[in-house]
Amino acid sequence: MGVVTTVxxxxxxxxxxxxxxxxxxxxxxxxxxxxxCAAFTNILVTFPIQKVLFRQQLHGIRAGEALRQLxxxxxxxxxxxxxxxxxxKTTTVALMFGLYEDLSRLLQRHAEWPELLTRNAAAVLAGTxxxxxxxxxxxxxxxxDHRHHSRFNNTFHTFRTLAGDYGVRExxxxxxxxxxxNGPSNALFFGLRGxxxxxxxxxxxxxxxxxxDFICGGLLGAMxxxxxxxxxxxxxxxxxxxxxxxxxxxxxxxxxxxERDGKVMHLxxxxxxxxxxxxxxxxxxxxxxELLLKLM
Length: 296
Hints:
By secondary structure, the protein is mainly alpha-helical. The chain has one domain (3-295): Alpha/alpha barrel (Mitochondrial carrier fold), CATH 1.50.40. 78% of the residues lie in helices and 0% in strands. It is built from 13 helices and no strands. α9 packs antiparallel against α10 and α9 packs antiparallel against α11 (229-239). It starts with a helix and ends with a helix. The relative contact order is 0.13.
């Protein structure tokens, strides 16, 4: 009888601790909301630029040819494929900021690690969690690829076709480069955001704070965009395939390299556009996130 009472008491204590933990995490919901709204703003502004960049990554062509392809597709197709990145980014950026904050607090509370290690671990874990939404990137790739325009009608039709005809696993094609990209890029973003902002002139007004946040986010986005650009090229190639064997990432990478005359620099076709898009994109995300966080 004493054993049962002890077990029941421990179970109640564990339940109370879990509830307290969930309540503590719930107090940070503003980070999720601000992250989601920041991503929404960014996607609406930068989507056409992303389409040009996508064509360059997929086909290894120059910006002029990518623009001509979009012109041939017509204005009505310019925002074709918008819904997947809108759903994916508003969710993953919310997780990026929200989970990072929550996991940082939880790890600091329950793990006796140095703060730098705790925050890096939280950033990597948040990035790994974001990879759950890989199917959105998968569908976006197919809808933006002009070779699949006649096969896939819209977001829901693409999801239904992939899952119904090929299985759920097909929705996660290209997962490995996404995992290799998300964790390290999150760790670098959150690790360098504070130090970079400290090097900027001290802001005295709300407008100056907004400018500093934009510059900080833009610089980090541009740097990380260049650093992880080959992984995005690899991901785009893997996700443009429908059906067939799941080739190892290493094999696909060397196939791309061979097609581009064995020159690593040719993997960076579109990187200059990605650089400018990343400055704008992550500048908007960081500045909007910080602004909304102050207003909430």
